[in-house]
Amino acid sequence: MRFQDKVAVVTGGASGIGAATVRLFAAEGAKVVVVDMNEGLGHALTDELDEGRTHFIRCDVSDRVALEAAVKDSHDRYGRLDILFNNAGIGCFGKTPDLDPEVWEKVIAVDLSSVFYACRAAIPLMRAAGGGVIVNTASISGLAGDYGFTAYNAAKGAVINYTRALAIDHAREGIRVNALCPGLIDTPLTAVAKQMSGVLDVWLEGIPMGRAGTPEEMAKVVAFLASDDASYVTGAIMIADGGATAGTGQPD
Ligand code: NAD
């Protein structure tokens, strides 16, 4: 029960890594606000969990006014805000000359700017309470390039360095900030790769552990970073990728 009496906000909490983390936070005692644009999945999740201990707010995180309000409403509902998990994200394919500027703007808004706006709303609340914890979902796609993943690579790379900047700016205020860098995780986001013949096999070949990770495995890493077990961990970029980025790419 590492999160007894704690309050957590999870963006993109209705599905995949976010939903697994909501379940784990709640199982370990937290009150959790799920912030997501998918109303059906969001309500289904909060219905599944204990009445009154979880709450769903429908919000498109690319709407900064709505996102800042969702963070403040979460605080007001439960009287505190201890943990912010910035996890909502989308991907898109397209090399630079072919990428629609609107798609670029959307990916940057959802994957990067939402992290800034949620932190902008949360940090004053955490600071006033003497501290808090922020975990940002980046990706191994923020550490190196993927062919044709232009906007996603840019956004996730920025989330990684923004995490470091946040960590040093707010360390003396008792606020820890870390990033999760998942590799290939079996969620609806990667379901599209499963439908593209051969793509998943190529990805799996590049993973020394030979399999995709699960949302539950990511939730355990997030819970560690969000808990007092990680009390001296801030500014860390936590890779959880089955070894995918550990090698040089040279074949076995
Ligand atoms: P997912 O699609 O299962 O979950 C993403 C959630 O974000 C969904 O509930 C969706 O409704 C929500 N969301 C998307 N856009 C939103 C918006 N504008 N406003 C509010 N909510 C929005 O995917 P996932 O794999 O669990 O992804 C979670 C995070 O993990 C993302 O940031 C993603 O980039 C990152 N990630 C995933 C993988 C992977 O292989 N699955 C790898 C690296 C990083």
Automatic annotation (TrEMBL):
InterPro entries: KR_dom, NAD(P)-bd_dom_sf, Sc_DH/Rdtase_CS, SDR_fam. Residues 6-191 form the Ketoreductase domain. GO terms for molecular function: D-xylose 1-dehydrogenase (NAD+) activity. Its EC number is 1.1.1.175. It comes from the Bacteria. It is an enzyme of class 1 (oxidoreductase). Keywords: NAD, Oxidoreductase. Belongs to the short-chain dehydrogenases/reductases (SDR) family. This is D-xylose 1-dehydrogenase.
